[in-house]
């Protein structure tokens, strides 16, 4: 580890902390449906969309209606993208003349992008036409992110409203977040990326005769416009197979820093918005503090392990940190940081190949996702997931003192706790169930590239990533088979919506409750004790559930690696 | 619920179409227009052309260098090496026999060239993209004696090139662009000029 590496990490966190309140304020304006300076330009677009769609943005919805409308919108988007991908061969915007996708791959990809996962069973270069990238995939990068933020708003309203029957209007939330937050940021971001060397063209392949006289084909395309929202919306689906490790997606150390910042930007801001919504910004800062502690712990382990390097290669006379799967322009520190950021948030973009990380360095990304993508988390999804843990934490605190728990002015009763457990239980059931299945079935065992415990890690990582809606991979796994495409598709869908529906039910139940003012007996949810309890609950739940699987994968792998035992 | 369902169907379908037009067509096409107008070089892949106007590479994306006369690039898992249509890392785990089997002959080759001491890690490892345009300065310097011999140059001049071309900041590691370095090398020795 170097001074420069730690400087980068602290600079990164410092910039985000400085941006938390401004972004949170902007999000709060959208949460309340207030007018912003951008309404002058985009207001007519918003109103036009409502008129054509027959939407009354002021018509409040109860949680069931909100959930139904959200689900129908997502199904419509899913079908749309499935159709675009299947019809790719006959649609325009296809300079390479690529064929349509197979049914299982189109299903997997459509689910993947709808659920904000962006798991990629395919390599972008040889699979997706320019039109598919733009019309099939980029729209989901916006709308799955907007859906996540809308859902977070709905839960915030549940906490903030008193004796109310409604939690907002889904269509208004999604449209406002897209038009007044994501789209304007992406316009600026895309121009920055293009200026830094990210291509933005409708052309296809360029033929190169290299300095040594060999032939090389280089693929161009509308990369920058997709790259911007891919990071900002914590989507992570790359234009190219190598994702943000590809020099055209992430050409410089500066674009790398900006990409990492943009993964966390909205997630940081939403914690502040939550505090503001419930009338005490300290509540937001307390949640953010717990998240940042978990994040920095992860960065420390991964950076330390990657900087220490691979002892197997050291034996052969190679010096320094682990550079297999890493780009020189980033180096060990910026690659380790990116890996922890992208898995703490449910982004899943990668600037280095997690599969080739040291055993423990690669375990942290895996563990981050297993914790439920709540360490900052995906846009919206991170904060609503973390609030489920907060409900459990006040419940545990309530059990200790024998008092009905309260959180931000609402009594937490058996219905909320049951629903929170239901939502959180989806993770281990799906991850461990599907990983176990794939470790014994022939179709599952055909997947891994690596042998030994690392092969098991590849399977475990795939289902963890799918259920957690992350999308990164131990990419040695050959996942483009009907078996993996189908199973991972189901895992992604369940991992997204089987958490969202109980979460919205909690929002509805909380909104209907009376306000319970804080009293001398209330457990304070702003101080250090609370932050410690939150960190503990997240780690204990995640740790107890997944430690056995980690022992079989990365930990066994680590013991082999330090003994020099090869597989 | 039936009424709810039909009331949701129209916005679901209409907004899918409207947003697809706005975000899937208007946005990327507008950005393409702006990018082509403001930064045409970068928007089209930062291509490098020789005196005759032929494309010889991109300053952003790496290409393979394998001969003794040039600074050689890192091992690549993109296709058969530096394939611009199939970017990829090796995805080999840390205790992988395949990794050791790949690295061992590369190390032997460097030793045969006379590189002593510990080898810089990036010289014998494959990058994440398989299209890494850079080397660490240490990996470039380790190759300087071989290049000096192959080109009949003083080794100090080759080392000087590396020092000139190295860049870096606190945001990432120090690195040197291999294509730029090798073009500078060709300019240094006359035999490169006039041909490519």
Mean pLDDT across all amino acids of chain B: 94
Low-confidence stretches of chain A: none
Largest sheet of chain B: 2 strands, antiparallel
Counted up, domains of chain B total 2
Number of strands of chain B: 5
Distance between the termini of chain B: 72 Å
What's the main sheet of chain A like? 2 strands, antiparallel
Rg of chain A over CA atoms, rounded to whole Å, is 23 Å
Give me the number of helical elements of chain A.
19
Strand order of the largest sheet of chain B: 1-2
Biggest chain-to-chain interface with counts = A-B, 130 and 102 residues
Global morphology of chain A: globular
Neighbour order of strands in the largest sheet of chain A: 1-2
SS summary, helix count of chain B: 7
Give the SSE order of chain A as H and E letters.
HHHHHHHEEHHHHEHHHEEHHHHH
Given helix and strand content, the structural type of chain A is mainly alpha
Could you report the average pLDDT of chain A, rounded to the nearest whole number? 96
Structural descriptors:
heterodimer; A: 567 residues; mainly alpha; two-stranded antiparallel ribbon; B: 196 residues; 7 helices; 7% strand
